[in-house]
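Q: Predict the bound structure with zinc ion.
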Amino acid sequence: MHLTEINGLPCYRSSRLGQFPEVAHGFFTRQGGESQGPYESLNLSFTVGDVPGRVAANRRRVEEALGLEGLASALQVHGRREAVIAHPQANLENEVPEVDILISRRPRLGLLIKQADCQAVMFYDPRRRVVANVHCGWRGNVQNILGEAVQALRARCRCRPEDLFAVIGPGLGPCCAEFRHFRREFPPELWSYQVRPTYFDLWRLSQEQLAAAGVPRDRIEVAGLCTRCHPQAFFSYRRDKVTGRQGAVIALI
Ligand SMILES: [Zn+2]
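A: Predicted complex:
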């Protein structure tokens, strides 16, 4: 994972996904947009109190940076439902309701996951030419949404888990992922991911859930960037409460 700039927008890119010229992707930071105040500046969420026109302009910047015809996004709900997307749905009124797994085979259509502590986890299957993007917070981990995403790719697009590449983007690190009520919130089988009292390694948990679903370990990449620890680079809900959402986007081109 390395920091770069695409058309003036700073973003982190995976070297594993970068080896495929038919894939465009970027884990964008909070920098390079038009929003102001707590949403400064590349906020991509319409539902956090920002001015809609600025969010729309920010989304256009991301589209242009990656050379896309449009973005598709969802009203993310920490569930485990998926949708196969065929058309851009970037306006708030068109966001796919109650979905946290986005899948596409359509070129130049960007799958956008909005996050500010939760992980965006991107998938690419070079054999079936399918991309997916998943919103995975701790509630997603508890529901094994990453295992569900692998199942959905298999059922909907005939992807084999062993063909998948998976990239876990920036999110809450083991430095900041405190769960004081973990006994109530996490099932006992996840308690072993505790790294010191009440702090959990959600990056390793996601890695293990991907591996358990059949994604080869040498095809799983972890950004290892904590959103709460980097206020210049990332929005963090835990840190700021009223704040924006950065975007992670993957597309076939
Ligand atoms: Zn941290």
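A: The chain is about 20% helix and 30% strand.
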